[in-house]
Every structure is written in C-alpha cells, then in structure tokens.
C-alpha cells in the first residue's frame, strides 16, 4: 500500500492523527511532496491553503491536460461540532480549478470540471463523512468519467458527465476551507493526508493504500473499527414493480437461447412494463439491464450477413424506443430539470425532463460532445410547459444495415437503381421529444432539426466511393414505423451539405436517423457503347493485319544477309508481342469476368503488354548503343535483349499472379483490378520504360543534332541538317 503512495506526485501529511499512518522513508522521516514539498498555511478563520506550485498547464490545475492515465485525489475527512476546537487542517469544502468537494448536513459530493471547447462537469454524491475519520478518494479519466471511493470501496460513479456553463473558482490553486455560498451552511470539517496521483488508481491500488494508511484492525479515537464506519453500500435491487423485470433481464445472457427466441422475449418485456412511476435509480437500473440484454442479443445474432438482417434490427430498434419512451414518461420528476444519462456498449443515452424556459441556449444538442449529433432549435419548444427528451447514439447498430434492398425502402432515388444494395454509412442516432416540437412543414422554412453524422465507411466502401467509375449516392434517411415495420425513408429530410467524410441533414420530424450509401457503376449510353466497340474492333483488327504483314515480310526476307541484324530482330519481337496482346484483347471481350478462362487470359494479357513495353525499352538501348556508346559483343547483346524483352515481364507476372491471383479477371473485365493496387504491376514497369526512353531520346537527339550541325558547317547542305 505504501508503494502505491510512493508513486504519488504530491503528498501533504499535515497533522499527526491517531490511527492514520503517514508515509516515512527508511530514516523515519516523512516524505513530503514527491514532486515538490507541499506548504500549508493556517489562517485565523480555520482555513487551510495547500499550494502545489504554479502548474497552471498541468493535469492538476487543468484536467483536460490529463492524458488517458487520468488523475486521482485522496484525503481523510471528518466533520466537527461547531464548538469543537478546529484542527489546523480544517474546512467544509475542497476547491480547485478542476474540482470541488462539499459536505453539508445532508450529503457529501464531488464535482469535477474540465475547461475546453465544451465545459463539462461530473458529479457524484455520497454519504457525508460524519464525526469519524473517513477516507475519500476519487479518480477521473476521460474515458471512464468520475469514480468516488469511500474507505477503500467504490461508492458512486458518473461515467458520462454533462455540459456545464458556470462553475467553481477558476483562479484557485488548491484550497480547503469554509468559504462559499453564504446562504448555504457547510459543516466544519478536518482533513488529513492529502495526496495527488497524476494517474487514475485501480480499485485494487485504492484498497491497498487505504489498508496501509489505517492499518489492519486499528481502532480510531472514536473506538469504532474502520469496517463499521464504511459508508459504502452495494447497489440494492429495487423492490417495486420493476424489480422482477430487471431481475429477468439480468438473466438473459446466461442461457443458451436462440436469437429469435431472445428477440421475442425482449419484445414481450417492452410491451408489458408496469405502468408505475420510476425513481432515477430504478430508471437507470432498468435502462442498463435492458441495454445489456440488447448487447447479449447482438452477440448471439447470426443475422449480420443474412438478407433479413435489416428487418430484424429495425424491429430491435423499435423495441429499444418503446422501453426508453416508457422510462421517460413514467420517470418520477418532482423537481425539474431532471437528467438521466448513461453509456453502454450498445449506445450512449440520455433522458431529460425540463421546463423549456430553463433552456438558456439557442439549440438543444444531443449528445453534447462529439462530431455526430442532433440539434433542435429552442424556438421549437415555445408554448410547452414541460418537455421530455430521449436521445440514443448507437455504437455498432449500423453494421447490421449493410445489405438493404433499395426496393424495400421508401427512397425513390435509391429504388431507381435496382440491384445495387444500400448500406448504413454512419452511426444510428435517435431522438424523441414529448410533446412534439413545433417544426416547419417546409424543408426550406424554419425551425428544422439539424443532424450531423460522421461517416463510418469500411475499407471496401471507401475504395468503391473513390473509384471514378462509380457514382456515390448518400441519403439522409430514417426508420419509418408508420406501417408497423421499420422501413428506411427520406421523406421530410434533405442532405444540406457534406462530403465523403460527413453529412449534414435538415429534417422536419424526429425519429431514428442514419446516412445510407448506395454505390452505382457509371453506365455508358447505348450510342457510346456502339461507338467504343466499333473503334476497338476496327482498330485492333487493322493493327493485327498490319503486324501480320510485317512479320511475314521479316520471315520472307530473313534469307537476305542485309536483314540479318539485331535491329530487325528487335522489330520482329516487338511486333509479335503487340500482335498477340491485341489478339488476346479481342478474345477477352467474349469471356465472363470471375471465371478461370478470364483469369488465364488476364495473366497472358499482362505478360504480352509488359513484353511490348520491354521490347520498346530494348529498342531504346539498341539505339543508345549505336549512336552514343557501344557496349558488349553482338552475341552478348543478343542475350541481354531477349532477357529484358521476354524474361523481365515473365518474372513480374509470376510474382504478381502468385501473390495476388484474385486481382486478375475479377472487376468487370479480363484485366488487373484497379481497386487493390495490383494494377501497379503493369503501370510501374510501363512508366519506367517511358522515362528511360525519354532520357535516351534526348541524349540521341543531342548527338545527332551536333553531327548534323557539323556537316552543315562543312558542306553547307541544309537538307542534311533537317
């Protein structure tokens, strides 16, 4: 336990207190302030200041500067009678620019603040310490929120926090004292062992430190053992009408039910909830238990790749809406505003009951942070005595809507492209308001709700969207349950702006929203297809005919000694490579993609077109050796040339086909795929040949120009220069 304390960044032991063990080094001296020694100053009013130095940009003074490790604050605390002599370290509150701890006659509380683009507050309440020394420790991490431990045991949490606009003393360093709101009486208290860690302790470390600090079976001056003073109580299941429902939901994941049976069970639960009011605690327990059951269903589900997946999960979302609506309408809200917030692996959720007059911002936004949200103008709530808002941001539900038939939607633009499936490309977000807000019927009017959703594209979707031969359609859509089953529709919504990374929509109603994406290949008109086909067949046929005549000519004249040189061998091989490539290209139009013959033909096309470029490179090398620099004998050059012309393309094709056979003959034709980078097995060698030949062309042209200029000077023949 003292090893945990030794890892603290700041430590103030304060006074010697019977029963609380201080941290001493091997010499018996108190180790005070691991980063810098703390200083405490007692004033006449019994206020104690703890200074940790000028670290305004540190994790302590500005929790937003905390990394994922978080921060931990720990101290011992007890209340005192007004007549009792104040200990030097005393006060009713602990305040800093990042947190505030208060104790009044009714409760103790921890409030934790962050300052940034969105000012946030986390608050957790606990039983006040009373007249006995009580250990209070709280941790905060951006991912997990606020956790409060009392006497070594987790007492209460606030994982999500909420937006807050007016808090604390922004100029305070670290202060314990009795100052504050004069209208509110704070109980005087005493403090000891104030410790700060610039990381969040684990539950095990909290227990270890607490045990070491108080010792085992140590009795305090109050003669009560620590085990009897613990204010922590395990959560108790509600004993009202909702207790059997919550208990049943908590058992859902334990059995071996089929997904269809589990879905029916969840639907039965949603339709048979008792019509009785819920306290905040019961409502939170019900929401957590139900969403945990939803998580179990999603883990069991085997529909993710099935055609019925969209229908099943639209029904599941409707079931969640039913339960959350019941929860919000029956939530016991004697004192408004009332906010219920939470997070699970299924969704972040919030339930708010409030008087709209207390909404002091121009828009209500859910969630309060993040790049995906719904915003409702406050003017839409005018004339309402009170409103109830239920918001849900689903984390993974969009994965189950990736195989939507456009004919099963009410999106006219999507239905026009039959056979091209639709998929959800963003989080699903839901908001429900009772009574309904006053929104414009006209999408060009106001007020309207604004929905911004960040796209969540899979690598395949992103590749398809970037392919210039595809057209991407993005729809602002919602699940329409007007006919009993959830059908995707875009009625009453318009996509105002966005790009491939996000969309902003305007809608005149509330429900479940998502961005749907449909990728449609661009199709040529019939006239263009005929024209391109004619050019291809006529051009290739003419090329093949002329190349054939060229090869026959070389063969007939091969007995003539003047033609037996490397230049004509190179020409013949180049002509042969181009002729075979053209012939195979025409043959490939007759084969269906994704078949074995098409794959074989794609590999052969790759080889012969690469060979054509390779023999063009040989043409360049041969010209270079004739004009600029002679290298090698005739026989050695012969071997080099054939090695480059046929050998190099063969090596490239073997490597490419071996490593990426699926890239041949799959994407609409018998050629290399354009989607996964395989096309570079052709483009890169071709670009290399072109660049080298450009360099050779420049060098040869310079030499010939210089020779021609010299001849012109000697002979004066302008035609020779030209």
From TrEMBL:
Coiled coil, from the record: none
SUPFAM superfamilies xrefs: Concanavalin A-like lectins/glucanases
Location in the cell: Cell membrane
Domain annotation G-protein coupled receptors family 2 profile: ranges: 532-722
Molecular-function annotations in GO: G protein-coupled receptor activity
Leader sequence residues: none
Regions that span the bilayer: 535-558, 570-588, 600-618, 639-658, 678-700
Main location: membrane
Domain GAIN-B as annotated: residue spans: 348-523
One Pfam family hit: GPS
Domain Pentraxin (PTX): 45-248
Membrane topology: Multi-pass membrane protein
Keywords, in A-Z order: Cell membrane, Disulfide bond, Glycoprotein, Membrane, Receptor, Signal, Transmembrane, Transmembrane helix
GO term, biological process aspect, one: regulation of skeletal muscle contraction
GO CC aspect terms: plasma membrane
Subunit structure: Heterodimer of 2 chains generated by proteolytic processing; the large extracellular N-terminal fragment and the membrane-bound C-terminal fragment predominantly remain associated and non-covalently linked. Interacts with ESYT1; interaction takes place in absence of cytosolic calcium and inhibits the G protein-coupled receptor activity of ADGRD1.
Family: Belongs to the G-protein coupled receptor 2 family. Adhesion G-protein coupled receptor (ADGR) subfamily.
Protein name (record): Adhesion G-protein coupled receptor D1
Originating species: Tichodroma muraria
